[in-house]
Amino acid sequence: MWLQILFLFLSVGRIETVPPGQSRVVGGYKCEKNSQPWQVAIVNEYLCGGVLIDPSWVITAAHCYSNALSNYQVLLGRNNLFKDEPFAQRRLVSQSFQHPDYIPLIVRNDTEEPVHDHSNDLMLLHLSKPADITGGVKVIDLPTKEPRVGSTCLASGWGSTNPSEMIVSHDLQCVNIHLLSNEKCTETYKNNVTDVMLCAGEMDGGKDTCTGDSGGPLICDGELQGLTSGGATPCAKPKTPAIYAKLIKFTSWIKKVMKENP
Question: Among the four 152, 161, 171, 214, which has the fewest Cβ within 10 Å?
Answer without folding.
Answer: 152
